[in-house]
Amino acid sequence: MTQTIRLTAAQAMVKWLSVQMTEEGERFIEGMWAIFGHGNVAGIGEALHAYRDVFPTWRGQNEQTMAHAAIAYAKGKKRARAHAVTSSIGPGSTNMVTAAALAHVNRLPVLMVCGDVFANRRPDPVLQQVEDFDDGTVSANDCFRPVVRYFDRITRPEHLLTCLPRALRVMTDPANCGPVCLAFCQDVQAEAFDFPEAFFESRVWRIRRPSPDAGELTRVSELIKGAKNPVIVSGGGTIYSQAEETLAAFATRHNIPVTETQAGKSGLAQDHPMNFGASGVDGSAAANAASSRADLVIGVGTRLQDFTTGSRTLYRHDATLVSINTHGYDAAKHAAVSLVGDAKVTLEALTEAIGDYKAEAPDAGARQDWLRAVDVYCARPDDQNAPPTDGQVIGAVQRAATDGAIAICAAGTMPGALKLLWKPSQGGYHMEYGYSCMGYEVAGAMGLALAQPEREVICFVGDGSYMMANSELVTAVMRRIPFTVVLTDNRGYGCINRLQTMGCGGEPFNNMYVDCNVEVQPEIDYVAHAASMGAFAVKASGTDALEAELKAARSRNIPTVIVIDTIAKDFPGTGLQTTAGEHGFFWDVAVPQTSDRQKQRDRYLEYLGQIARQSLVN
User: Fold this and answer.
1) Cα dihedral sign for 540, 418, 252, 342?
2) For site-directed labelling of 124, which of 12, 188, 290, 523 has its Cα 20 to 30 A away?
3) 361 and 392 share a domain?
4) Residues 15, 148 share a domain
């Protein structure tokens, strides 16, 4: 006779999650971030309290940002562990839709358990219920469907027997990894059911390493052996596969330069001789030159996003593209020759297949020229009373940071600047740029610090992103999670202002505070604001002061926020970036076809010249 245990559905969910383990003997879902409301406090809230000694609960300040923290944790753990997040019905749930999209784009696991309407419908419409006039099964949580990898609605307690294993199967699948949304009807959370005791036996989730198909491997091996000037584009999949050392050995043995995406940067330490730096729009002169002359482009664990490919203008039209990826969808992009498999396993198989093959020596001089240009651009400014450039700020942080420091950022000017200028040790870079989500930075730094507490975490955030979302500073103070925020204040959205005026031929409008239709320019005291939430906050008067404050921050067990005024200035023509204008390689942002301004018309003619270079093959 089957032994059973009577639990509410919510109790059963938490109990089950508490015994899902990794091969290292840790919980795969470490715990749950929670903001309670009427849609989850009575059911899930009670269950989390009941199991608080074996499955921790953490309170956040905003549903979106606590989900960002969970996502950053998973990224910091290379997808080997994850967090869950719960919210109430209505705005609590929809606040997390942006975070779900971020996780989906970046292929990162997070479990979102959202309160939902009453399955029995007796009290309908309940507070915060979104009603579809033509479909009685729809709720606000259906907004998650296009931005999660797996969606389920729990309308009976026994649904947990199938939906929970399905959820973890997705989150631990290297090909389909991404966010999961379980819409948990609030009455069902509190309903009791006789669950089989066997359901709660501890289970180990192994993340598979799929080997490549023999035929695909042979084809790609022959392409590599026939190439003179191949180049590797290393993406986030290299890191999630823990293939960093394998990539380094492969590139060194076969003389193939490595370029990096935002997600792939720091797979190789910056001082590795085969690391030629960032690829594409915000790429290094060395990387983009190697990419432009390559006869074979080997993508490893990358989605080949437009920033990486220069909106499909970076590579030669006659170059062959090979894509190594765990998912066939990504591996086949841009008419690539697909090699579906785990990055580590596939690179090992390739190096055996191509034997002693060596490409022509890459241009080591170009790499050194680029690194010297970076040093010049990031050098200490002589005038410590003048606002520094973003590059000078990065240089100051680099000089003051520990060897193992991790730079984290997400949106604005800094992602491009950091990708080009930051010189990380292996694993010393954490960028959310798949979704380029303003407001990820502070919460992401907290999640990253939880994932890698042994490393110094330095969060770069502009004043625009800081204003979007900063409240998880409170959570970090409460939980004594230390990290350092470098808040660069250029008094507006400087990055988009440059795109508007320099990239697209427009006039400055509605981005910098000075260009807004307001009577009074805001004077925001970011130091006082951060201090009011309990962080240690200080303003640095120059890069020397910034360096000193960064070193002092390491002695604290709470977040430190260092504010520094900067100038909203683009990269000058220093040879840091390959040209298509002075903004780096071409990025396709549509320019108006007609305008009454000559500047705009001239920019459109330039734009036509650039898009004529694009490869249209998908």
Assistant:
1) positive
2) 12
3) no
4) yes
